[in-house]
Amino acid sequence: MRKRINFLWITAFLLCLALAVLSAGCGNKEAATTGDSKEQGDVFKVGVLTSLSGAEVYGGNITKRGYDTWADTVNQKGGIKVGDKQYKVQMFYADDQSDPASGADAVERMITKDKVDFILGPYTSGVTLAAAPICEKYKVPMITGSAESPMIWQQKFKYTFGTIPAVNLTASYPVNTLVSDIPGGAKTMAILAVNDAFSKAVAESFKATAEKLGVKVVKYDIVPAGTDFTPLLGAIKGLNPDVVAVGGHEKEHMEVIKSAKSLGFLPKAFLMHYGVTNPDFVKNLGKDAEAVYGASTWTSDLDIADALFESSKKFVETYKTKWGDEPDYTATGCTVAGEVFGAALEKLGAKPPLSESDREAMVTVLEDIKVDTLYGATSFAKEGDNYHNNTGLEGLTIQIQGGAVKIVGPKDKKLAEPIYPAPAWDKR
């Protein structure tokens, strides 16, 4: 009888032990970590919220690469210097699934369960708008290296900042190039956009600039995500516009080009915004991507001094070695977001973990900071409709030429001549 009791006790003990081990391995499935597995107090815990699945996974992976390039480089150099000590960063990732509601839930879990010190923000503007109130609630600073909708900054969130100027500050540049800087420039334009915060803002800016320059807008459509562009482009083909301008993300942009080619439709120019600079755009479309115009704030052709990487040229080398592609302006904006947080922590002098008062003080530091980064002098507006947005960057007109991104405007910045009209599909 005693042997049976002992056997039952041993079995129960082993079962409990097994359950404990399993429980230890079943934490937050959404948040993955990188970096040294040190106790909090030895590292800054950094939350990264982006689209690792869903419709915007192309851009989500670009933001992750940009943030990771910053973190890996900082850690290789010993960490962020606070006083006489350096602290490495440990990254916690959450997948917003390309959905604002999922993003809000994910960022709250990172703040309450993972106890992150600050947030590197989402790829899309819609998720950023959903995550920002959560950061306000818990008083956790967030810098997005990607989101560009002016709606974010008009909300005047105290704890949210952005390194890329809002699209209404940059989308006018390629329209100006196509209309004013090219002999015999565009006279008519059709505009399509997906119904999300960023894409609608792109379309509105394209339309306002075109009308200001005397261009006739022959079609203006805002359509739901997942719309089949083929019938829309079929109708536009009959209107014969000089330019088809699209507000969307990489996936929609690629679908527009494929649909247009299937219809044998080729306007004098396709104009898009973000997505054209993403390496996946050219990889997936090949020669069909040629001559497509876009807007940017940075390209790998620029050479800018930088404290962490020495120069933007060295950054490009580092990024390309790590990921196999050159960075676009969003990947760079994400790396810059990390750089700005690092500079703010050095200036603040606060060690991990950050207290609520430390995080509040960081907001004040970020509002006053001016730091030289890959983007040049980076700072944030303290008032107005661009509150906490980095508004100091000048827009660039870019075009895909020979499979690469080339700066073709404004006139005083161009490094290549714009191609207009676009070559025929079978002449590329």
UniProtKB/TrEMBL annotation:
Family of the protein in this entry: Belongs to the leucine-binding protein family.
The UniProt record lists the keyword Signal: yes
UniProt keyword terms in alphabetical order: Signal
Signal peptide annotation: 1-23
Name of the protein: Branched-chain amino acid transporter substrate-binding protein
CDD domains: PBP1_ABC_ligand_binding-like
Domain Leucine-binding protein: 45-383
Highest taxon listed in the record's lineage: Bacteria
InterPro entries recorded: BCAA_transport, Leu-bd, Peripla_BP_I
Pfam families membership: Peripla_BP_6
Coiled coil residues, start to end: none
